[in-house]
Amino acid sequence: MEESEGVPKDFIKLKSEKLSVDEVSELVVSPYCGAVSLFIGTTRNNFEGKKVIHLEYEAYTSMAETEIKKICRDVRQKWPSVKHIAMYHRLGVVPITEASVIIAVSSPHRAESLEAVTYCINTLKASVPIWKKEIYKDEYSWKENKECFWANSEK
Amino acid sequence: SPGRRRRRGPAAEGGSPRDGGSMSCEVSVLYFARSAELAGLRCETLSVPQQITSLQLWEEIVKVHPRLAVIRDQVVFAVRQEYVLLGDQLLVLQPGDEVAIIPPISGG
Questions:
Q1: Which GO cellular component term is one of those annotated (chain A) (predicted)?
Q2: What are phi and psi of B30, to 5 degrees?
Q3: pLDDT in tens, A73-115
Q4: Among residues A91, B2, B12, B20, which is most buried (max CB within 10 A)?
Q5: The whole model's pTM is what?
Q6: Of 3.90.1170.40, 3.60.140.10, 1.20.950.20, 3.80.10.10, which CATH number belongs to A9-138?
Q7: Which residues contact B10 (CB under 8 A, 6 or more apart)?
Q8: Does an H or E element contain A114, and which?
């Protein structure tokens, strides 16, 4: 086994092209790990009875990457056995059923990677400066994550 | 004054004396999501007092873009990529600092 395979790596990407589950999960595979846990966020076709045509995402890219790096650092503090982490988020137009976000984490045993993936998506929704616009037939709506601590809870 | 062209020069820019004689500096203001729609642009350089509370900074920006007033209760700033609530927090701004208007986020 190559020595470089043992070094834990973070793979962070914001891109407008279609995300690939195969590509992201392969990034974190490691001969030291018996588990790869995965989260895929896909786009639903409806909201409050309205048909969603597609989603559009934008980001404060440099800060989003910095915040995602902080999430990776936190994961490694909380679950030291975690090996590799990949967090990929799509920007621009995302058609219905396609993935907006893919998170993959590897660890020697499954408990840590399962918990870490949950932490990654929950913290991303609370802290990473990315915005989603839902496009309906005749209107659109900027969404607000309930995890966002400064969002107005009243609509 | 809005829209002044950014100049390269000495680190501290001497502005005209304001209340207490504070200096001003040029910062890059970034607008995202709904705030970009209301302001009608995504980025610009604004001259603001170097020492200013986050709420005062918001008020300076609303003077330039009054339509932003409707989202005052929903936004925070990111100053040099750190979140800052609108309030009494005193900011010490440097020329070229990035100040971003951050509406409620919805990643993931």
A1: molybdopterin synthase complex
A2: -110, 135
A3: 999 999 999 999 999 999 999 999 999 999 999 999 999 999 9
A4: A91
A5: 0.89
A6: 3.90.1170.40
A7: none
A8: helix A110-127
